[in-house]
Hints:
This protein has helices spanning 4-28, 33-51, 53-67, 73-87, 140-143. Helix content is 52%, strand content 0%. The protein is mostly helical.
Amino acid sequence: MSNPRTAWIVYIVLRLLFFAVPFAVLYAIGLTPWVAAVFAALIGVALSVIFLARTRSTASESIYEWRNRRRTADDIVEDEAVEARAAGAAPGAVPGAIDPVAGETNGTTDASRPGQTDASHTPGLGAPQAPAPAEETRSPSATNRGPADS
């Protein structure tokens, strides 16, 4: 089916039939309406998965084309940048560049310093932190004192 409108019409009509026919049969044999509806829905889903794959694919492609009909190259680049940021990596990022959204470096290898990475700044954590001082050790008797023993 090359025509998206035809694909939509066929898909909708067949999905309705895949539900309505089993529902009518199950209701006619004496099942309560809600039980017949549940079984008819399960049967309809199974039949549509088996028989409507090509029609569903054509309808899905038409949704994608309709959704993206007015996208510009700038929109595509912005979407890719947002997705890359969400994934934690910026494909095509310039090494050592500052992220215009977050104002931080991207932590990639700097081309001016081969083998060096910008590890002094982790994105999203603000300024670099000094290492935490070593924890002081105390004897159990000093930390577990109860009331004053006089």
